[in-house]
Amino acid sequence: MVATALKLETCLKNSSNASPSPHRSLQGILERLNAGEVVIGDGGFVFALEKRGYVKAGPWTPEAAVEHPEAVRQLHREFLRAGSNVMQTFTFYASEDKLENRGNYYFEHVEEAVWAVEALKASGKPVAATMCIGPEGDLHGVTPGECAVRLVKAGAAIVGVNCHFDPTISLQTVKLMKEGLQAAGLKAHLMSQPLAYHTPDCGKQGFIDLPEFPFGLEPRVATRWDIQKYAREAYNLGVRFIGGCCGFEPYHIRAIAEELAPERGFLPPASEKHGSWGSGLNMHTKPWVRARARKEYWENLRIASGRPYNPAMSKPDAWGVTKGTSLLMQQKEATTEQQLKELFEKQKFRSA
């Protein structure tokens, strides 16, 4: 999971196995973006490592970086081989208080994000600031356009969104940010790192309100073809820093790299064996599977869920709480049965 919504990014050199890039000599992230190069981000580290048994869901702390560094290193290698040319350090929730107990996602409030940008700007390095918000804006009702304006005025060179919402909703939010910047006469590079889960039924706080969060989200996972579509739509919107957050696995990143290969000038090493759009299927033993080795088939396929009695959408858990509410205060001990009982009573009262 990459929900640390403010990031200082380090551009890595393209893999030595890759074909030459037209911008290979540009190493700085702003130099690359200023030249119009597509920068592909990485994916969801916490969710991927939790699935592999290295991180505990709930605290979401990055203890695997110390306890199992080889697992973290391997996931970095996989994202890099799939096409990422930016690696983020695995430091989500790595503050002392978060390591001791549970916490909340980082930047859902633009005021806090601005403070962080101002602090990081003093480093002299480029600052990329993304927020965990949807089209409704932050939890205090500040619109995405105004959020972008405040972040850029504070010193962010790259702004956008990450986590909480799917690619479609995230790009809607980035579009509003872009329009806000244009109206204010400001310029910044745009960045998008959404979930790899479909979330059309989410409320203002995104997928954490869905009853499936975090252990029943698999039926919502985006296919690689969904992500190729997302990459193209992001590029057409003017987004040049394109990656993913929770749920994004290396094959999702590979889908971005394959879709944008014409613009980047090369395919990642992970695409060498099977080609793009399932072209490797033309060697399958079954003729009807061989017939699927084409872009048109996968672009137009209506995916079945295989769950005949399940609803198409979920009803989010609307607890009606936001930052500062006593229910969200930090506590070091696990939630007790009595506390749960009180929570359920409050929820029942709100639903009545």
Account of the protein in words:
Strand 6, helix 8 (167-183) and strand 7 (189-193) form a beta-alpha-beta unit. The chain has a six-stranded mixed beta sheet. It contains 14 helices and eight strands. Helix 9 packs across helix 10. Mean pLDDT is 86; it is low at 1-23. The chain has helices at residues 29-34, 45-51, 64-67, 69-82, 96-100, 110-121, 144-154, 167-183, 224-237, 250-259, 261-264, 287-290, 295-300, 337-351; strands at residues 6-7, 10-11, 39-40, 86-87, 128-131, 158-162, 189-193, 241-242. By secondary structure, it is α/β, with parallel strands linked by helices.
Lay out the secondary structure.
Blueprint: E1 6-7, E2 10-11, H1 29-34, E3 39-40, H2 45-51, H3 64-67, H4 69-82, E4 86-87, H5 96-100, H6 110-121, E5 128-131, H7 144-154, E6 158-162, H8 167-183, E7 189-193, H9 224-237, E8 241-242, H10 250-259, H11 261-264, H12 287-290, H13 295-300, H14 337-351
Parallel strand pairs: 3-8, 5-6, 6-7, 7-8
Antiparallel strand pairs: 1-5, 2-4
